[in-house]
Amino acid sequence: MLCCLNLQPFIGRRRLILQTLNMPQMFEFCSDPKTLEGLTWWACYVSNGKHMDFYFSFVVVLSLLAVMVPLVLLLGFSGALARRSSIALVRWLGLIYTSIVRGVPDIIFFLFALIALDQGIEYLRHVVLCPDWTEAVRQGSDFRVCPAAKMPLSTSPQWVHEIYGIFLAVVGFGFVFGAFAANTIYGALQAVPKAQLETGLSIGMTSRQIFYRIHLPQMWIYALPGLSNLWMILIKATPLLFLLGVEDIVYWARELGGTKTAIFDYPHADWRLGYFMFLLLFYLALTWVSERVFDRIIRHVSRGQTTVGGTV
Predict the structure, then answer these.
(1) How far is C-alpha 256 from the geometric centre of its chain's CA atoms?
(2) How many whole angstroms separate alpha carbon 239 and alpha carbon 221?
(3) How confident is the model over 94-111, as a mean pLDDT?
(4) β-bridge partners, 53
(5) How far apart are the C-alpha atoms of 167 and 212, rounded to whole Å?
(6) How far lies 168's CA from each of 106, 177, 192, in Å?
(7) Residue 84 phi, psi (nearest 5)
(8) 39 Cα distance to chain centroid
(9) Distances (CA, A) of 99 to 3, 32, 81, 102
(10) Contact partners, residue 162, CB within 8 Å, separation at least 6
(11) Whether the Cβ atoms of residue 146 and residue 153 lie closer than 8 Å to each other
(12) How far apart are CA 55 and CA 47, in angstroms?
């Protein structure tokens, strides 16, 4: 099925030409790179326009992670509560959602589901905006709609293409990791001792009060270890952003670190190893900070909890 999908619009949408000779510089003395050497050369090299895009890609990745967290938790809670629903149809929908996503490789959703979503949006726009179109939309492996139905339009400014790629990335990551979060939250809800819930019922609390005052607060102690692990996996999955047309940090490390000949302003040998070592340190630092944050959160929600080691 994947062989029949035209990936070029996705990948080519953000493909840049790096052979530009007039890249913007931060310092005035960088106007003629061929006259530079030593520390001056390095100062100009790491502050040129392409490196600014590289630095900004870190902001993009961190921002996407920040946006995806509430979406993943929302889908996770929705899936978990659906699986606990007393309505059979809702319960089956929750089970189907979590089971299918868990059983299908993530790459399938990024290469098929989101491309299908992209083409579905364009097809609906095609039907509404171009009712007189006579050519077939599906022509072999090509998907062709009228120019007015393209999403985004070829005449749209660059930031529109950026936002659209980010939108697809958020939807894709949220849908996939929301299913894993749903399983974690569902297991945590099931792990809360029933005696605590029955105690709330015995003192006259309603089902809603029991859920929000007893069940939900107690659930976090069981869910956070799994959610913290899911967060680490989400961090490691961010390099897949390039499949959705987002120029992430891995994309720029590969492009900037590749061999640059004399036609470039700053020619150099293959420096990809150095760039990827920098990314290694970045991911390790992000992981370390995440572990410290989750440790503090877990200690906070565990306060007053009785464990085999005593009361926390």
Answers:
(1) 23
(2) 30
(3) 80
(4) none
(5) 32
(6) 14, 14, 36
(7) -95, 0
(8) 37
(9) 25, 58, 15, 5
(10) 246
(11) no
(12) 10
User: What are the pLDDT digits (tens) for 151-203?
Assistant: 877 777 877 777 887 888 888 888 889 999 999 999 999 998 888 888 888 88
Structure tokens at 11: 């990948």
3-state SS, the chain, equals: CHHHCCCHHHHHCCCCCCCCCCCCCCCHHHCCHHHCCHHHHHHHHCCCHHHHHHHHHHHHHHHHHHHHHHHHHHHHHHHHHHHCCCCHHHHHHHHHHHHHHHHCCHHHHHHHHHHHHHHHHHHHHHHHHCCCCCCCCEECCEECCCHHHCCCCCCCCHHHHHHHHHHHHHHHHHHHHHHHHHHHHHHHHHHCCHHHHHHHHHCCCCHHHHHHHHHHHHHHHHHHHHHHHHHHHHHHHHHHHHHHCCCCHHHHHHHHHCCECCCCCCCECCCHHHHHHHHHHHHHHHHHHHHHHHHHHHHHHCCCCEECCEEC
Residue 288: half-sphere exposure toward Cβ, Cα within 13 Å: 6
Kindly state the tokens that stand for 157. 């400014």
* 265 vs 311, higher pLDDT: 265
SS (H, E, C) 162-191: HHHHHHHHHHHHHHHHHHHHHHHHHHHHHH
Q: Which two tokens stand for residue 55?
A: 């630095």
Contact between residue 166 and residue 246 where contact means Cβ atoms under 8 Å apart = yes
Distances (CA, A) of 182 to 76, 94, 99, 149, 228: 4, 9, 10, 35, 14
Do the bridges between strand 306-307 and strand 142-143 make them parallel or antiparallel, or are there none, so unpaired? unpaired
Which residues lie across from 307 on neighbouring strands? 310
Is the predicted pLDDT of residue 305 greater than 80, yes or no? no
Q: How far is CA 186 from CA 231, 288, 300, in A?
A: 17, 27, 21
CA separation for the pair 73, 178 (Å, rounded): 7
- The number of beta carbons lying within 10 Å of the beta carbon of residue 55 is 12
* Alpha-carbon gap, residue 312 to 299, rounded angstroms: 8
